[in-house]
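call fold(seq) -> tokens
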Amino acid sequence: MLNSDDYGFAAFTISNKSAEFFENHLTKIPTQLNRVVVISQFIVMMRELLYPATRFPKILNQMIDEKNQNLINTAYTALALAVNSYIPIDTTNSFCKSIADFSLKKALKEQENQSLQSFCIDKALSFLYDETNLRLAASWIEAGHIAIDGTVLKTALTPEHRYAIAKSYCASRNFTPAEKQALREKAFAGDTSDKAHQVQTVCDHSLPDAALKEKLWTDLVNHESKDSILETQQKISGFWNRYQQFDLIEPYFERYYAVLHDVVETREREFAQIFMSGLSPAFMARESDEEEFSKLLAKANPEKHFYVQFLK
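ret:
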């Protein structure tokens, strides 16, 4: 057994009173090493469901003056884990907005540290789904530079920034088709790269439309499909949008369980792996999900080790 007879090993928790102190005074911890220890312990507690993931942005907000990028990245890693596995669906949007808000504020503050500023912009775009911040990001594409609160940042607007903004903007319900088309024309003007073409295809697949979801699903489960692996990945990327289109993908959770066994049995391994991981409702963590995976495991071909390991 792990750590059996290891008397030098201990697991500890932070009391709620101490947690509240750190949520408001993390910067008072004198050394980076000690701050790492505290943040790491919050992450452990979150994974053990001893610290609510919804409170983790309070820890992040205490890092507005932090200069250690590795330490900040540790917090972002925990936040990504939280939003993927621990945050209730109905709080996801506000949770992501709080992280994006902090990231943009931090980026503005780091005008003299371009590396950290660029890092913060990248992180902001990873959590950028709300209308206010998407309109701000769209204005960067229109202007050709990144500006926050009227200040032009030293970090340049890159093609990767434009691609990330375009995908979230097109998937949003807060903008009209005309607004989306105008943004795409500006974002991809003169960009003839393969990457730009691929992103535009994902944008086409990302529109918040129930009929489009049904068409994409039909394509994905069609055993006679001639789509390449890249085309399959693009369709799944556009189809599966938990944070902006949850209600549109929820009806497909049960349909996923109904077809997964046949997909694994009849399609090539690479396709099956992309399908089973890219469309899995496991993040819901319901008893019904556990039951469905158990049923699939019971009839899984033991020679398909990749599938068996996934189901476990």
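The CA atoms of residues 61 and 102 lie 7 Å apart.
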